[in-house]
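MOLECULE: protein
FOLLOWS: sequence and fold
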Amino acid sequence: MKLIEELSMKDVHLTISDSEGQLRELFETIKDYTQMGHSFTVVIDPGDEDYEKSFYIDGDGSDKINDIDIKEVDDDDTEN
């Protein structure tokens, strides 16, 4: 009997505008919390029935951010 489904590793690249550092802090906080095996829900726009969306993060091993590599880029280096 297979107790744990095979983990699917993904390499994701994001190019973001983060003037106040909030997106960086969000991703780093999720990374930190999943490293200690903590499961939690991330809620986007709570209380707004048109836009609220929840994401469950299973930090007990199956969901985690292994690494965050942040680089500053020139506006000329982005497509949008």
